[in-house]
Amino acid sequence: MKLIKELVHPELVSREGRVLRRHAARGIVLREEKILLLFTERYNDFSLPGGGIDEGEDITIALARELEEETGARDVRVKQHYGFIEEYRPHWKPEYDLMHMTSHFFVCDVAAKLAEVRMESYEIANGMKPVWVSVDEAMQHNRQVMARQETSMGQSIQRETFMLEKISRELLPQPA
Q: From the CB of residue 86, how many other CB atoms can be counted at a distance below 10 Å?
């Protein structure tokens, strides 16, 4: 397993205090020049599908579960553990001072056709939808949101944009 990057949210003043520890599995699903992402209306951003790993849950089972719930992906086949990001950011609940999130990224294949999604109520309320989009389009969109410092901007956009840039450089065919 390879550490890709450590990210510290710019608003985080300290890594000390009461820490919510979270582990997540996220999928990189490519088809030609398109990638399977989630667009979230509330935050106006694109993100890689995936989410939390339950206590005692196998990481690849968690990945398949999250991809199925959020995108309708079926027959998830993990090809490669791409690496992980350690992230420190403020937490909104008063009982915690910060969140320490480890996000594991996996290159995956999925069945050709997506089924119905089974999102959680907060995902539906946030306007989250699975989309096939070019990596470049998603990357440019997220960069523009960050440049404008939109008030709706979510805390994960830095991680997601960094990963889209890395995927573009390392996993997509490069022009000659």
A: 14
Instruction: Provide the CATH number for the domain around residue 154.
Output: 3.90.79.10
Residue 176 domain-assigned? no
Does residue 175 sit within a domain?
no
Contact 88, 100 (CB under 8 A): yes
Q: Rounded to the nearest 10 degrees, what angle do helices 135-148 and 157-170 cross at? A: 150
Domain that holds residue 45: 3-170
Average pLDDT, 10 consecutive residues per value, the chain (176 residues):
92 92 97 95 97 96 97 97 96 91 98 94 95 97 96 92 97 86
User: What separation in angstroms does the CA of 136 have from each of 23, 139, 150, 176?
Assistant: 27, 5, 20, 17
Q: For the whole prediction, is pTM greater than 0.85?
A: yes
